[in-house]
Structure formats: structure tokens, C-alpha cells
């Protein structure tokens, strides 16, 4: 049954590389205005699932709908419409080192809108203000900290006012204090602007701080083994693999 306010719908997804099946029978929804986390150990398919959700990989089977559109990269016009409804922050930030922060954020506006340069610059400045970087518009990525680079990458992902932001391991490589600052940025954008986030992460402290709902993938099950509020999964789930994950212990029967 499809939820009325679902902005991402995944139905019976199968992810495979040739004959190797990584995920199968995967189904879930992301609701508008929530922070949704994709969890699981290494090799369980988190990054592969994210690549399916943003159209970088086509499913071997099943269907994905994002912001009301069937995600079919083979249809260039439909895919272009979807790209304007989503924003993506990649794990390393993927900012262009030769450009200033404001120039980085202007790139999506240059590609997808007819706005004149002064309007693009003003929008880019506004996005930097939203992530607390209003004083750093003229800086290049190498001139700011790793946490600031992550926030600048979120600002660029927000350039086209997307319906959904996909974040790939946003806290990776950050110290606990900087990670907490990034968590506060995500929560502020979610609470003040109603932005929907889909976050792939293995940083449990950040997941507990920001996510309202999560799914957990498992490599042996090749799919979802648990879904719910992360704190509830940690405290009340009786699935051995889930308990081991949240307690940072080896999975049951692992070598």
C-alpha cells in the first residue's frame, strides 16, 4: 500500500552485478519531511541502493518512483525532470577545487535554469547562509575545513530547491564535534524548511541524532531485515543481526 505522502517508493527491487545478486525483494517508502537512514554493515548494499535511488544504476528488476516520477535513466527527458527534484551530497563532497564555494553552488543553476548570473549568485549566497557559510562564499574548498566542505556540498545539493536530499556518509572522516555540527545543520534544515533527507551512514551517533526512521540491510539476507526508529531498533529489536550491529559486535555465526 502506497502512503499518500511518500516521496520515494521502492517496490520489489533487485540489484545485481551480472549474475551476482546483491539485493532482492527490497521494498520501502520515504515519507515527505522525514530524515530516513539506510543502515547496514560493509558489503550489504547501502551504496548500491543509493545509486539505484538517484538513477546511477538501473534495477535488475522492480520499480523505483522518486518525487512522483518513475526512475528510468533510459528516458533522458524524465530523468532530467527527476534530477531537478533531487539533490545529492557524495561522500567526499565532490566540490570542484578550482572554483569558489559560490561558484560550485551556481553550477546546477547554470545547467538547469535560464537565470542571469546575478540571480544565480544571490541564490547561491542564500544556500550558503542556510548552512552557516555566508562568510565563505569566495573561499575555495581547500581553504576551509572538512566539515565546512560537507556543509558546502549540502548547499550545492540544495541549489535547485529539491524535494529530497540524498546524503552519502555525510559524517565520514569528521571528528565527533564537527560531525555533531553537521547533524545540527541537517536537523535545522529538516525542521525549519521541512526538507526530506535520505542518508546512508554507518555513524550510529549521527543516525540516532537525526534519523526518524531507518531500514537495515543485511548481506546474507540480501535485503531489509529491520525497519523503524533507530532508537527503537537499538533498544527493542530481537533480531540477532540487528542487535549485533547496534552493539558493534560481530554478526552471529560470522567467521
Write the layout of secondary structure elements.
Layout: E1 6-17, E2 20-31, E3 35-40, H1 46-53, E4 61-66, E5 69-70, H2 76-83, E6 86-89, H3 101-112, H4 117-130, H5 146-157, E7 164-168, H6 176-193, E8 196-200, H7 204-210, E9 213-218, E10 223-228, H8 230-236, H9 240-246
Helix pairs in contact: 3-4, 3-5, 4-5
End-to-end distance: 39 Å
pLDDT < 50 runs, ≥5 residues: none
Supply the number of helical segments.
9
Strand content: 25-35%
Describe the fold and architecture:
It is a single chain. 36% of the residues lie in helices and 25% in strands. Helix 3 crosses helix 4, helix 3 runs parallel beside helix 5 (146-157) and helix 4 (117-130) packs across helix 5 (146-157). The mean pLDDT is 91. It is an alpha/beta fold and 255 residues long. It is globular, with a radius of gyration of 18 Å. It has 9 helices and 10 strands. The strands form 2 sheets. The protein has a 6-stranded mixed sheet, with helices on both faces. A 4-stranded antiparallel sheet has the order 2-1-4-5, covered by helices on one side.
Quick take:
By secondary structure, the chain is an alpha/beta fold. Helices cover 36% and strands 25% of the residues.
Task: Using brief descriptors, characterize the structure shown.
about 260 residues, alpha/beta, 6-stranded mixed β-sheet, 4-stranded antiparallel β-sheet, 9 helices
